[in-house]
Each structure stands twice: as structure tokens, then as C-alpha cells.
Amino acid sequence: MPAPTVPSPPPDLLAVRVQDPYPYFAWLRRHAPAHPDRRDGRPTVWQISRYADVRALLTDVRLSKDPSRVPGYVPGPAGLNRHLVHADPPDHTRLRTLVNAAFVPRRIAELEPFIADTANRLLDRIEQHTHVDVIAAFAAPLTFRMICAILGVPEELDNAATRHTLMATIAPAPGRGPARVEGDLHALLDILIAGKRASGERSGVDLLGALVQASDDSGAMSEEELRSTAYLLLLVGHDTTMNLIGNGMLALLRNPGQAARLTGPGAGPGLVTTAVEELLRYDSPVRDATFRCAAEPISLNGQLIGEGDIVSLLIGSANRDEARFPDADRLDVGRTPNDHLALGYGPHFCIGAALARLEGTVAFPLLLERLGPVQLAKPADELPWRPARVMRGLAALPVVRN
Q1: Measuring CA to CA, which residue among 78, 74, 102 is closest to residue 351?
Q2: pTM of the model
């Protein structure tokens, strides 16, 4: 029996999908919860939009994380795709074990004073400014400083130029073609890894040193896996939390009543904790789960996903599913329970989840307190969003202090 015909999404929703994907996601959940995107010369991509389906498939062993199963698919920069996000067991288990120790909640909690000090120093610099870009002046440098500290990146490389080298791999870089972008990235990784080897910092003092040691001394990680893992951690350790802070501040500015709850007399650590979870859910920093493809045919919602088809699990849509979250399009910083999927679920749950949550817990109260009353410097529908494949994040968040 042929599969039922799948309706096509309205063009007006597709046109604004980068700026505001949520009406498009709502349409998918209602009309095409397993929607195939078929284009000539490209593998079929199935968009899965309902919470129950996304959560179930995040742990489904019929989905593979290995991009080599899809002929012609290019997952990322050449030579930098042998990392835990693109691996099935046992390789995924091995690589994740090598990284895990640096991100256990106890070790991350010890960073709280350093995060608060760094955040306050950044806010000191902009305290006298009337116009502020929250991304460039705060979210980007804060989150990059934290992942640099964990990895052991030298202070002289903790700068905007290094960040731009990383971010150019997932979003267009004006005047820099793919070959230049990849060349700059490989050069950066050469410097970082060679520096660890030359200095002898390979005894677990920092994560990158420990990974170099695993590669050189025990052979637990190949050179390509080492370089790929360093790239992955630098990128997602920065990008995910930067998006959380930017998207979250935008949500609070557009919902001043909710922001007031975090600064009023009833505010406290408990409310801040639930607020961070709600901000993760409401405008998730990871819009689509990372790469997965069908290792065998899968039947879902009356459709047949073929072996080798790409399966895009729409985290942003699942987190706005009315069947799971009452009044899902409303921001509620006190929402409980809140079983969102912003940081994944199952064996590929975000390894940096504790860091992202802690940075958000520190950053939002400080921003609201020290910036004082602010408003958007331009209408919300004119804010620039980065057209990345997986992430959802603002390129800039300009505000005016009152």
C-alpha cells in the first residue's frame, strides 16, 4: 500500500523559518509529524516534530550517528568529523568516556565563582554604555572563556578572532570561502595541540592536555579523533550556551512580567533554576538534534523512513508541543514539571549540560540586575539570526539602557 500523501508546508511559514520557526513547527505537528524533505541529488531528510516521537527516537537503536551511512553527505569540516557526536557504540562510548570527567557536575560546580567573576568583569566594561549588544559584549566572550578554561586554551587565543574562526564553520563567513575557513580552523587546532605537546601539559591539568595524553601515550584516541574532539568541544561548548543566553534574554525582554519575577521579592535560587529550564525549552539553543540516519526502515505516523534516510529530530518543535507542555507558546519561568529536550535525551545527552545550566543560572540574574531597565534597540522581527544547520541563535541582540 502506498504511503499517504504528505501536504506541503505553506510558503509563508517557510519564508520566515530562520527568524521564527515556531509557526512552521506547529504546522508540522498538526499536519505532517513525519515530513519528508526530498530534493534532487540529495538524501531524503525526514523532519520529526512531535515530542513523543522525538524523545523516543533519541534513544532508538535503529537510528545511527555515523554519517558514512549516507553517501555524499558532508557533516562538517573535512578531517574533523571523528568525534562522539558522529559515532555509534562502541566508539561513542569510548570517546565519551575520555571527555566525561571534565564535565561531571561536581567539577562544573567548582567553576561558579570563576563564571560570576568573569560575568561581572564583562558587565563592568559596558556599565556606562547606553547601547549594548548582549551577544558581542557578554554572551560570546563569557561562554568562550568558560570552554577555553576547561580545555586549557592559552589566554592569547581566547579572543574574538578565534571565536570567528570556529563560528565560520557553521554559518556563512563574508569574504571567506569554505577552503579558507577550513584552513584557518586546522591551523588553530595545530597550534593548540602542538602547544600541549611542547609544554608537556598532558597530565590531566586541563581537558585538552588529557586528550593529547590519551592520543600519545595510550592510543585511546587517534590523531583525527583528537583534532575532531577538540573542534567539537570548542564549538558546542561555546555556541550552545551563547545561544541560551541570547535567546533567553530576548524572551525575557519580550515578556517583562516574567523578567520581573526574577528580580522581584519572590526571586531566589529555586526560581532561577526553573527559569533556566524554561528558557532552554521556550527558545531552544539547539533547534534540530545532531545528525542521525536510519540504519533500517522505520515506520512512523503512517510513513516509511527508508534505510539511509536522514532523520532530523526537531528539538525546538518538540519543546513547544501542546500535547506535552500546557500553553506551550507561553513563557513561564516557574513552569514545573519541565521535561524539555533542549539538551537531548539518552546516550547522546549533552555532555556539557551542567556547564550550560550553571552559566545560565549565573548570567541571567546578573544581566537583569546590572543592565537595569533595557529595551530592544530594534523590533524583535528585525533581529538577525544565524542561519546554522543545527543551532538556533542570534547574531546580535542590541539593547538600549533606559
Answers
A1: 102
A2: 0.94
